[in-house]
Amino acid sequence: AMLRLRLLTWDVKDTLLRLRQPVGHSYAAEARAHGIRVQAEALSRSFREAYGAQRLRFPNYGQGRGLSSRQWWVDVVKQTFRLSGVQDESVLTAMAENLYQDYCSTHNWEALPGASETLSQCRRRGFRMGVVSNFDNRLENILCQCDLRHHFDFVLTSEAAGCAKPDGRIFEQALRLGGVLARQAAHVGDDYSRDYRAARAVGMHSFLLRAAGQGEEPEVPPEHLLPTLSHLLGLIEK
């Protein structure tokens, strides 16, 4: 039976947009611009450590802890460089400000293959469309810069929602914004627990974007798996 869907919600990172290069490469280029040589691989490792620690200490960009998401990110960038041996505070500040801006544009983000076409087709079929993403408030601007914002009726970030996937409340907010019941909506994302399982837990349908060769999740029936975004409409309209 064809799903009676009225709303499609979308994850962003690694579903619609991806980084053009690993974080360490962007950070190393920024360091070079300040005359500092640091290995990209070392910076990637330092970034994972700094980002992981910051997320544990201040979940969801420091929501409710008196921290702006901008300050949250500036601290992560500075700590990344400190862990890689850069100590000059004025240089750390300059690099952090620059990188915060750089990650707000097509300088670092690109659309995944088929993203724009699939969103256009879904729009033409008359679906309401929304973004549900564990992202900070730069997302609106990033989607505009990458020419995807016009596909969506709303963009809901974890920063704006005050909670992050897999918390069901962010999906419930999205359903209210879309004006539909859970069973009239489907979520599309690349993460098994934060996207696929979390949306199903509130009664939505969901589809898991899964590139060939990625680990198999036993509970995902094949009709919920998307090898690429362009498979979506075929599955919905079966």
From TrEMBL:
The cellular component terms of Gene Ontology attached to this UniProt record, alphabetical and capped at eight, are: nucleus
Which NCBIfam families does the record associate with it? DREG-2 (TIGR02252), HAD-SF-IA-v1 (TIGR01549), HAD-SF-IA-v3 (TIGR01509)
The family note in this entry says: Belongs to the HAD-like hydrolase superfamily.
Q: What is this protein called?
A: Haloacid dehalogenase-like hydrolase domain-containing protein 3
Q: Which organism is it from?
A: Probosciger aterrimus (Palm cockatoo)
> What does the record give as the organism's lineage?
Eukaryota, Metazoa, Chordata, Craniata, Vertebrata
